[in-house]
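Pasting as-is:
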Amino acid sequence: GTIDIQLVEGNVSFGNVAEEFKLKTGKVFDIERMRKDLQAVQDVVGDQGYAFAKVFPDIRKDKEKGIADITYAVKPGKKVYINDVIISGNSRTLDRVIRREVFLAPGDLYSTVDMRESRNALGRLGFFKDVKVEEKRVSEDKMNLIVKVEETHTASLTVGGGYGSLNGWTVNAAISDRNIFGSAMNISINFEKSELADRAEFSIFNPRVADSDYSLGFSVYDNKVDYTTVSTTNQYKSDTQGISVRSGKRLGRYWSAAASLGYAYSDIQYEEGNTTFNYYLYSGKTTQITLSPSLKFDNTDDYFTPRSGSTFSDSIEISGFGADQEYTANHLRYAYFIGLEDYLDFDMIFRHRIRASYIFADVDDYHKFPYTSRLTMGGIRTVRGYQSGSITPVERDANGNVVYTDGDPTYLGGNQMIVSNLEFNIPLVPSSGLRMSFFYDYGAIGQNDFEEARSSYGMSFDWITPMAPLQFVFGWAINPKEYDETANFEFTMGQKF
């Protein structure tokens, strides 16, 4: 049969909505697909201000031929304007924090696109477990918007520890809140102490200073590392302090730009000895001044579990300006999310993340481009199934064979890297917020070429708990090299895909 749209009255444009219908001519009739097509027509009409438009199907059946002609009749009615926006359910988050993410204000013409994007913008904040925007009719041409939110925990206090063959005993603690005092400001304090290292960092960030489109934040850190606890024949100590200031501006609903300026001072003492810790390291005092402009796009519909949309960022890191370290890095990140429920009748999410980095530098100069500023792979944010930061280019001889010292290769650090993460995410216990993912990771890293490539597979469990979101990862390396350091289990708190 045929599928058509008929306007009963008024002057409304339907654009190319018919091309996006789920129910197609020549296909088997499906009531659920017809309902989705009805909603698509309703959305197109509603985006032109006709919030109370009536759309109904006229189905003419031909039983002998086994076909049906469908016409969607549209009666738009009057254009509708917003009378008031009412916020409810927020015991902690300030009204103004919510209101500034709602793209409809009193007096505005109703728009289904603005309604949908307002829900998505509130979901991207990560402050709410659930967001609903209800429409309450006041008159033929006015309505109230009732924004109902269910808040979730944004503050976390974590204490952990562990033991590793290289780091020895490690104890870490973190206090953070992404929505301190309900103001949307982000604050975090992190500590880590092990046999090798003492690390401390404090940061604070305001994404909307005085409810404007401008952001501002800063961070300070102090990192001390002492590898003499691992090998007394190899003296390696570093003490680094740094500070950075960041400012940015929203360029639209999805786009934002930012820039940060940072300064770091390091005192590195390195004397090579008989050790299995074989890295190229610079010895002496070094300074770093870094300017980092960035551009970001995000139109996803949720902070932790998006089912639609994508994210993109491009960050340029320029080190120099008279300081010791001199290099320029470009970091690209892209991720997209597709909810498959419309196709599978099951809440499965496909998500894919790509990360690419390239550093323009003299790879042979470990003073201007030290190992600590070079790229490494492995771990929960890159290629799972390998220990964090354990994959780097290694020194090779003229025949391409790996150069070993005391049984271990010499790690060089990379200046280019690309990583791909594929996941299928499904609910495990929906009532408790527990979901499960099956993943495949691939990454390649090198100096002027991708000398080292690795892949892995596994599963992860994402659990949004009352304390904070937790992620438990079980990964297995695929055909690892003989000198690779694998890790079958990792966990993290407060991070997202």
